[in-house]
Structure formats: C-alpha cells, structure tokens
Design a protein that fits this description.
The structure holds 2 protein chains of 2 kinds. By secondary structure, chain A is of the alpha/beta class. Helix content of chain A is 40%, strand content 24%. Chain A is built from 15 helices and 22 strands. In chain A, strands 2-1-3-4-5-11-10 form a 7-stranded mixed β-sheet. In chain A, strand 10 and strand 11 form a beta hairpin. The two termini of chain A are 16 Å apart. In chain A, 45% of the residues are buried. Chain B has 4 helices and 6 strands, in the order ββαβααβββα. The longest helix of chain B has 37 residues. The N terminus of chain B is likely disordered. Classes of the chains: A alpha/beta, B alpha/beta.
Amino acid sequence: MPTTYVGAIAYYQKNPAAREIALRFPIALSRAYARLQKEYRSKVVYPNQFRKLCQEKNLPFRAVYAPADYQLLKDVLQGGSLVTAEIRVYDPDEEEDEDEAKKDDKKAESSLPEEITAYASLYHYNSTTGEMHSFFITAHPEVAVREMVRYILPMENGRYLLRPIATKSSLAILSPLDPLSLNSVLTYLLEWGYDVRVLGGNDFGMLDLSRLELLREIQTVNVSYYTPEETIVPAAAEEREFAQLFQEKVKEFPQRLTAQLRALGKKVGAHYLVVLQPFGKHPFARGFDLRRGELVWRQDQFAEKSDNPGLRIAAMVSEMQRVGPQIAKEELEQIVAEKDRVSAQRDTGGLARVAILDFYDRTRSPLYNWLSVSLSSAVNDSMQRIFEFERTEEKKSNEAGAKLFAGGKNLTLKTLQAFQTELDADYLILGFYSLNPKNGNVIIESKVYDLVKKKEIGGKVLESTVDVQLFNAVDEIASGVVQDILQMTQQGK
Amino acid sequence: MKIPTLLQAPLVAMAFLSMSCHTAMNKYFIKEPVPPNSSIGIFVEGDSQFRNAIFAEFLRAGYDVRALGAVEPATALESPDAPQPKKAPVQEAKNSPKQVLAVDRALENVHKLHLFSLENLKLDQLQVLQKKLGIRYLVLLSLSRWDTGNCWARAIKLDTMQLVYVHNYEPARHDDLKSVLGMMIRTMQSGK
C-alpha cells in the first residue's frame, strides 16, 4: 500500500479554528483513505511521525519546501507522497482597533469576506514522479477539512480527476488536430452523448502543438499542477519594473487564467474544457471546470500504449469518465465529524479509560506553573474532539501520579503497573517541561503509555521560545498525542 | 464501457488520424437538422468563383445565406506578430538566475493567457455574427480538395454554440463537387 506522509501544517495560532483544522485534517485524510476501494487506499503517516523521521535524517520540517528539499526528502518518502499545508482563518470580528467606517472602507476596497473564512494552501508532492499539485481552498472553517480532503483524495499516480466529466456534460475541446481529424473526435464525443460546444473548432486553423504544450503545467486559482521551482521573491526598490512584471504575470496569473476560463465558459455555454494532446512520447490531457475556472483533470499516463493518436484520444475520453478515488461530500462530512472509539482493553467491552496527568514542572521557576494544567487541558481537549473515551478522575489520577512517578523520574514497569491497578486505566498520558539552560527555551516532553500491554506507544519532545510560539508548542504536543493514539488504534485494526 | 454504436467497427474509425487511411468514408453526426429557411453564415475556403458556386447551392436549397468571405475568424484575429513561445534572453551579467527564471515564467504565462484570450476573441466574433447579422447557424466547409478526398463540414448553432452537424466525406469515383455538396446539404437538412 502506498504511503502518504502528512508533514508540517502551518497555521496562525491566534485563531482556534485554524488550530482545529490543522488537528483534524490528517486524521480525516487517514479515515477517508481507509474508506476507499482497495486499489486507492493509502497508509497515512501523521505529522509527528514525519517530523521524527526528518529529525533523524536532519532534514527540514516545514510547510513549503524548495525543490532541493524535495530531492533530499525522497529518501524519507521512499516512493510515497508528501502533503503539507498552510492555513489562515480570516475572522472579520477579530479585526482590532478599527472603527466601523474604516472597516467598511477596507471591505469596499478589497475583496475581504464578510464572514469567517478559512484559506488553506495544500501542497501534494509525489516522490515517485516528482510531480507537484497545489490546491488553494476557500471555505467556512466548519467545512474546510472536508474540502481539503475532497481535493486531495482523487490524487493517483499520473492522474488527478476531481470529478468525472460524465456524458451529457457540455464540453468544449482544444486539440492540435487537423480539421478532418477534429471532426472525427467531435463526432466521437457527440456519439458518447456529450453536448459539444465549439471552441477552437470554429475555424480552419489547427492549434499549434508547441502552444498547447504550455498547458502541461498550469496554475488555476483552486488547483495547480507544476514542477517545484525555486521560490522567487523579487523586490529591491530598484527592481520596481521587475517586481511589477512578476506581480502581474506570475503572482496574479492564476486569477487571470481563471477569469479567462470563466469568460470562455459563459460565451460558449460549456461546463468543461478538455485539452487533448495525443501526439509524441508524452501525450497529456487536461480538463477545466469553466464555471469555477479551475483545473479538474490532469493525466499524463494512459493505458493505451500504442502511439496512434486516435486510439490515444479514445483512451483519454474513457479516462475522463472513469471514477477514481472519491467519496461523496455527505460521507466526507461524517468522516470529518466522527470520533474514533478507543475501546477498553479489558473484557468490559466499554470505552477505554485514559489518565491524563498535569505535566510536571521541572523549570524551578514560578513563571511556568500555568503550563502544567495548560498542557493537560490541551491534550484532553484535543482527545475529546477526536476520540470517544473515558477520562479517569483528574484529582485521583494526579495524586496517584505524584505518589508513584516522582515528577516523572520514576516511570518504571512497577510504578506503571501500580498506577494501572489503582486507576483501572488502559492508557496514561503525562509529560514534563524544563528550561534549556543555554537559551532559556522551554523543552516539553510528552509520553503515552499502553498500561495493559505495558509499553510506551508514543511521545514527543519539543523546544520552544518563550513567546507566542509556546502556544503553538502546546497545540503540537496535544496533536502529537492524538496522532500517537490514532496510529496505535489503526495498527490494532 | 458502452461503446458508441457508430464506432462498433471499432477503433478502425479512430485510426482516422493515420495519413495512410484510404478507405472510403462517409461519417457524420446530426444533433439537430439545419432547417432550410434558416439564416446561415458560411465559411468556405477557395476563390470567389468557387465560393459563389457553393453559396448558390445553399440558396437553391432554401437557406437565407449570409456570405462571410473567405477569411476565417482565426486568420482575421491571428496576427503574424502573435507571440510564439520562447525563452527570455539571458543577460547573465545583469540578471540573477532567479530573475531569469521569473521572466521565463512570466513569458510562459503570457503565452498561456494569449491562447485563451484568442479563443475568447473568436467567440466574441461569432457573437457579433449572431447579433449583428442575425445568423442562426454558422457552417464551415472545406471542399477545395474534394477531388483528392478531403471534405468536411461543421455547423454550429450560434445562439447556444452547440455543434449540431459534423461531416467527414471521402468522395467516391462518381462524385463531383455538386454531388458532394448536395449530399452534405441533404444530410444537414434532413438529419439522415
């Protein structure tokens, strides 16, 4: 089974909705893959495991990589794919220190939304083919995770089809064919039942193959397909002309292309535009949804091995109809919302009992007392959102932990066994934090134990500066615990 | 997979693109007939005499013919100076590799946008034909090489931009220009 590694998901910590999306997305993706037909399933490696792999190999762990980084990551990915993301949530109610008049002016000038909106940039890298897809999703935070999964799920080796272009759809076609051959293709599509609209076939000309080749890599507002490149950041003041060129022709290109596609769609009355290039060693097909101005189909590999262009086009038409890995929106919503049941390992058949202890403060400073409860609360909150389980009584658990574990220094088989007996718990989550004497950073370590099987099943060590990043670190620790337990429950299935 | 019925002489039909295909061919598809009293615009290649002969046949068939000339919309719009895809000139001394990369990408994007804006312009032209000249169907015909076996036709219903008639025909020994054209007109009108 292929592997999809979910890497760094960067988000602006201030907004809890962004944090929620970052927590839920890898979990929802994993569940969605598990629901697909066997040939489309993928094993998901969660961010904390991927981070560990990167740390072991001294590789960067970030949301946006340079091309050279992807080359280095190939060793870790071993033919699998890597998904990373950046998430921002815009909440108009959180705009600070602006009076209403200024806010209205700002909204009128710009295209700022009027209600809370999540923006997610997703990056999918296939380490076997070196191909990169990116997605830019705009959605209400409540459905952002569903949309992120919906866009990523249809990814296959050599093909991406967001939705089949079914017969009876209205479509237009661009293909570098002579008029006689184009007629044959148009007839073929009409016979399939497509409502064919004429685009690029209302003349005697033949589309230049070299110009069509430009469409092999394409960036539309929501979906892009390209080979990773160096990030270009122009901008010294003396390079104003260059910066302007870059802004208009590169940064704004997806929006301009999307506008062109939508205009085409309105004029020709077609829902889809398909680009079919059947010639040479590297034929390709692209499909655009003209209503949304987005790329919905990308295919560079076809079962038809003959180099006969007619047979290739027949294969392309067949492929654009073939349903790939997809899950209906309603089912995806359920997948996102559902909780994993963590079952008790005893014979009671009930929910697992999980002890979550306040983290032990080893800083020897009163400044960080608050972290102890903050960490355990964050872990509990994250767990409650994803799992069904029973938390052991907090006071009793902390008292037992204080008695047995000596601030986390006495975590032995014997003390864990004693804890398990006293609390009748299946799992234990605890941790501690200290200060790095060299730089004053806070080092947080979490540990997750399966008390019945008597083994450590997860944990994480994070170092954070003592500023707003500390809140990110708390969230990461909590997410890491959730991912460890998910990994454990999924391996057990 | 359900194969369209007309292709059940299967993919030999799709070998149309082979230059060596010489089998006699009469392949057409009619979504809806083009009624005889319709207002049609005709794009056809050839000199004036040739085009006049074509128009005359359509007039005789009862169509309200608007002659649009021999210039196809693409030719009218496509200027000899239309940008061809190329790389940016590299001024290595002046520009950093990243700047060269950015200019290359910008040029590529310009070409991509040009491709679609050209299609948009062609469609705008067709809408002018419909609105200003009252043309209901646009008929494209290529008959200038009828004697060497290359004839084709298309008809587009301009108010919906739907393709309603497509025809590839390889003339038989007994055919002449009139019979080929007559056959195409009959097919367009009757749907058979």
